[in-house]
């Protein structure tokens, strides 16, 4: 049914040399199983997906040595303003905000190349910081 209603998904989420039906199998499997992730999300959220206990209200309690990297899609419904707010709230900490161009909420699928590049840079930064210890 999903394949008929959303034929674009097979094109949008098809990785070169992979099975074009894999996305439909994935959607089937996540909907056929017991909805544990959805129940957790509902439990932690108020109506419309707002967090009951937003991390933004508690972020300053984290050890300032803990580095934080945010990734947002440039066209995502999730505002990057929270990432910049964390930068303001943690001036003595490493807080990196990355905006993935031409991407919505699913940055890993919408702009794979830029997403992978940003992740590689984050990993290099972590490795460099580990080497300095």
Automatic annotation (TrEMBL):
Family matches, as InterPro entries: AB_hydrolase_fold (IPR029058)
GO terms of molecular function: carboxylic ester hydrolase activity; lysophosphatidic acid acyltransferase activity
One GO CC term, this protein: lipid droplet
Top-level taxonomic group: Eukaryota
GO biological process: lipid homeostasis; phosphatidic acid biosynthetic process
PANTHER family the record matches: PUMMELIG, ISOFORM A, RE40534P-RELATED
Family label: Belongs to the peptidase S33 family. ABHD4/ABHD5 subfamily.
Protein name per its UniProtKB record: Uncharacterized protein
Species per Swiss-Prot/TrEMBL record: Panagrolaimus davidi
């Amino acid at each position: 049914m999903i394949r008929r209603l959303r034929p674009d998904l097979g094109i949008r989420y098809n990785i070169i040399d992979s099975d074009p039906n894999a996305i439909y199998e994935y959607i089937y499997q996540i909907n056929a199983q017991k909805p544990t992730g959805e129940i957790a999300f509902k439990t932690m959220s108020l109506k419309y997906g707002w967090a009951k206990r937003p991390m933004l209200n508690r972020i300053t309690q984290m050890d300032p040595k803990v580095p934080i990297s945010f990734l947002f899609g440039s066209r995502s419904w999730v505002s990057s303003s929270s990432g910049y707010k964390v930068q303001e709230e943690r001036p003595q900490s490493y807080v990196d905000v990355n905006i993935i161009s031409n991407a919505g909420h699913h940055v890993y699928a919408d702009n794979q190349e830029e997403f992978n590049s940003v992740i590689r840079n984050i990993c290099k930064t972590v490795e460099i910081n580990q080497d300095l210890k």
